[in-house]
Design goal:
The chain is an alpha/beta fold and about 425 residues long. It has three domains: about 55 residues, 2-Layer Sandwich (Alpha-Beta Plaits); about 280 residues, no CATH class; about 70 residues, 3-methyladenine DNA Glycosylase II, Chain A, domain 3, CATH 1.10.15.40. Helices cover about 40% and strands about 10% of the residues. The chain contains 16 helices and eleven strands. The strands form four sheets. Strands 6-5-8-9 form a four-stranded parallel beta sheet, with helices on both faces. Strands 7-11-10 form a three-stranded parallel beta sheet. Helix 7 links the parallel strand 8 and strand 9. Helix 3 crosses helix 8, helix 4 packs across helix 6 and helix 14 crosses helix 15. The radius of gyration is 26 Å and the shape is elongated.
Length: about 425
């Protein structure tokens, strides 16, 4: 299996060995060893939480640069709905779309428009009698990977429909090939303008499909300042917008779920809240729900760590008031059968990264040893050992990646034992020396 290519990067020179990232990582992928953080590639799901909490800015996201679009004859921008919420006093989405064309793109394909089609097909999927409920949205790749790693029993609950960005990329590529017969497929560059690092790794190793139609991923934060300048050059924007209120709502938490016109839903954002909801679903405490929308970033996609604006004041609500509900043109007859090209090509499956051993007998022995070690540790989960919890340290010890004395409380007790032993020996020697 090829190694996963991550978008979250670590600058070891900047790292001071604090445990902020260790404690906040949802898959326990980070450890502090010899005073520096290290990220276990197999466990990392590119949620960007470590980027958000690192005080030294030792974590960052890799993404494509705008200059890379020049390698393609035909260049298409896929703006995320969250992009529109980054600008002050934006009266029209068209101004942003026209600004993207002035940045060097030949065409724009709104991800918010594709979100409206995904909404229609999700309604259709929820009417199927044979599906596992509650259905969990697959739009956030962090949530899908988290389920694969930590909540494998919920893999059948994931919505097997293309995410809006993949849907938009495939339509944009087909459109370019149809309208420009002289173009080869490899001459078309489809670039998503992303609010988070997870979409970068998704484009490289997609979920649910063999290969993504996305060529590269740009950062909202990097493109924002270029866009501010080009948008000022747009005197009268051309009418390019085709999406409406529903597609724009996907930028914020709850926007996807509320568009389904189904009251039996739940929406949660922020990785810690996401984990709590998944635990509840796993324990069958939310069986009355039909749909669950989960966003790893606080506030939804507007809270991604590659955005500019604070997620709680991102201005998509201002645009919503002036937009109508755009029609997709999908008839009830068409909704009955979701076209195969809009469904996943392969299901979400359990990740093996948390397996203790390929051999079941060895795995059970290791599990028993972890339990024994866990009982001998203080259970404070202080993180001073460089692991996020005492259980994680016990697992590291069993796997040969750490020692019991990495725990400062165990080390202190061993030092005390040595001191007592030395004191006793010294006392005996002194006592023996006083004898005639």
């Amino acid at each position: 299996m090829a190694e996963f290519i991550h978008s979250v990067m670590l600058d070891v020179d900047r790292c001071t060995g604090c445990t902020n990232c260790v404690k906040r990582c949802p898959t326990e992928a980070i450890r502090i060893r010899e005073g520096k953080a290290s990220i276990e590639s197999r466990r990392c799901i590119d949620c960007g939480e470590c980027i958000r909490v690192c005080p030294q800015k030792a974590k960052s996201a890799s993404y494509d640069r705008l200059e890379e679009i020049e390698h393609y004859r035909w260049k298409v921008a896929l703006p995320a709905p969250a992009l529109y919420g980054q600008f002050d006093n934006l009266e029209s989405v068209d101004r942003v779309l026209n600004g993207l064309l002035l940045c060097g793109f030949d065409d724009v394909a709104e991800v918010s428009r594709s979100a409206e089609f995904v909404t229609e097909y999700t309604r259709c999927y929820l009417r199927r009698p044979d599906i596992v409920k509650p259905v969990i949205s697959s739009a956030c790749p962090v949530v899908s990977r988290l389920i694969s790693v930590r909540f494998a029993s919920l893999c059948p609950n994931i919505l097997p429909i293309l995410s809006p960005v993949e849907y938009a990329a495939r339509k944009a590529r087909r459109k370019a090939l149809n309208e420009h017969p002289d173009l080869r497929d490899d001459e078309i560059g489809i670039f998503f303008i992303s609010p988070c690092p997870a979409k970068v790794s998704y484009a490289r190793q997609p979920i649910g499909v063999e290969k993504s139609a996305i060529t590269g991923v740009l950062s909202i934060r990097e493109l924002y300042f270029r866009l501010v300048g080009t948008m000022k050059q747009v005197a009268v924007p051309k009418p390019l917008r085709r999406s409406g209120r529903i597609g724009l709502n996907w930028a914020s938490s709850g926007g996807e779920a509320s568009a389904l016109y189904n009251s039996k839903y739940l929406a949660a954002d922020g990785i810690e809240n996401v984990i709590k909801v998944l635990e509840e679903i796993e324990n069958e405490n939310l069986s009355e729900l039909e749909f669950v929308e989960l966003n790893a970033c606080p506030g939804g996609c507007v809270g991604g760590c590659l955005t500019v604006e604070n997620p709680y004041i991102a201005r998509v609500h201002h645009l919503r008031r002036s937009m109508t509900v755009a029609q997709t043109g999908i008839s009830p007859e068409q909704e009955r059968d979701i076209p195969r090209q809009y469904l996943w090509e392969r299901p979400l499956t359990e990740s093996s990264v948390l397996k203790l051993d390929d051999d079941m007998d060895q795995a059970l022995k290791k599990l028993a040893e972890i339990k024994r070690l866990g009982q001998s540790l203080p259970g404070l989960d202080c993180g001073a050992c460089g692991a996020p919890s005492c259980h994680a340290l016990a697992e590291d010890i069993v796997q040969g990646k750490a020692h019991e004395t990495d725990c400062i409380f165990v080390m202190r007790e061993k030092i005390r034992e040595i001191y007592r032993t030395v004191s006793q020996l010294t006392g005996r020697e002194q006592e023996g020396g006083t004898k005639p």
